[in-house]
Design a protein that fits this description.
Layout: H1 2-6, E1 13-18, H2 22-27, E2 40-48, H3 78-90, E3 94-99, H4 102-117, E4 126-129, H5 135-138, E5 146-148, H6 151-164
Helix pairs in contact: 3-4
């Protein structure tokens, strides 16, 4: 994208880079929402914590209907997530975390709260989707975490949420 912009093909691109690029970004001195220019902005590290409701891979507290052993999956536990986001935060990089399932969102909210209790709260951290959520966790979302809720995804998942009795 940088090469296209350098060639005069102008568009705005806000990049949330994958976790495997974290050390490269740190090495290159990238800082979230500071590095880049008006056309290419480095926003933060994108972490995929769970899957989706449609594929029954979103991490849930209760099993999926008719699948008693399926609670979805999580890419890491809360401690691993906290270690990753705090390491990035210490290097000026915010986190954008994909979280759809209610248990996944609870883990993400817990990790962000721990980060903020330690005073690491000057970054623009985000939760992407925040699609299935327990009311008790909704009340725990730190006020300085941005929630990027996409209603277009919700429309297709409402039947799945209703079948499994999940709170949106």
């Amino acid at each position: 994208y940088k090469e296209l912009i350098d060639e005069g093909i102008l568009f705005r691109f806000y990049w949330h880079f994958p976790t495997e690029d974290l050390n490269l970004m740190i090495k290159n001195g990238i800082k979230s929402y500071e590095s880049g220019n008006e056309f290419l902005k480095y926003c933060g590290m994108k972490i995929f914590m769970d899957g989706s409701l449609g594929s029954k891979t979103a991490l849930m507290f209760r099993h999926y209907p008719n699948e008693p052993d399926n609670f979805g999956f999580s890419a890491m536990n809360e401690e691993e997530l906290f270690n990753l986001i705090s390491f990035a935060d210490k290097h000026g990089i915010s986190s954008t975390i994909h979280a759809i399932g209610d248990k996944c969102n609870s883990i993400v909210i817990g990790a962000y709260n721990k980060l903020f209790r330690l005073g690491l709260n000057d970054r623009m951290h985000r939760i992407e989707h925040l699609q299935s959520l327990r009311l008790e966790d909704l009340k725990k979302i730190p006020s300085n975490v941005y929630c990027a809720f996409q209603p277009v995804h919700l429309k297709g998942d409402i039947p799945n949420i209703e079948k499994s009795g999940k709170i949106i």
